[in-house]
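Question (not urgent): is this output format expected?
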Amino acid sequence: MSEVRTEESRFIPLAVAVVLLAVALAWGLQRVGDGFARRDGDTVSVRGTAQRNVKADRAVWKLSVSQSADTPASAIAGVASGVEEVLSFLNQNAVPRDAVSLGSISNYANKEYIDGNASGRVLSYEASREVIIRLTDVDKVSALAADLGEVLARGVNIYTNGPEYYLDSLAEIRPELLAEAMIDARSRAESLLGAVDGKVGEVRSVSSGPFQVTARDSTDVESGGYFDTASIDKTVVATVLVEFATK
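Got this back:
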């Protein structure tokens, strides 16, 4: 009987050791898990934005002068006359000649088709030539477009989509807007963490989004960026996604 008790007493320390090891492992795994949780939760990502209202600084206006006639020569002569009317109009409005460029003259036959088949008869000949105006005075170009009716009243056939307004100064203001967007991102992060008694630490990563150049008060955006050319007054929006460490 005493031998049995002796054998049992030998296993008691071993059992206790196994229990203690299991508890230690469980505690250790829990601490490791807590460590990963803290590592995943020690950053905060926020999006910062900055915008600025700006004015276009360059205009491009394309006009296509066309003429239809019974012969190619008459069509081309009509286009030449129409282009001269346009150049006269521009000259009267103090547009420098070197701000105007002329494209080549195109000419084609307008053929007759009956039930989808060419009859071999030419109905007329169409000729056209492009006149392109490039100016940094965007207000002048806008005024010229509004007065184009003067040329149309002279019988000149003109097709245009209207002036296009560009923002060449975007390269200059881009760094400034990105800096402002970073400041906005930090301010948002501080507001978020301040609500839970946290603090913003160092920047872990930064990525900038595409710039959106829209008409003033417009909400047009595109994933790859948006660039409005129809409006003189524009709004430029910059975005950044910033990951901050937390304290």
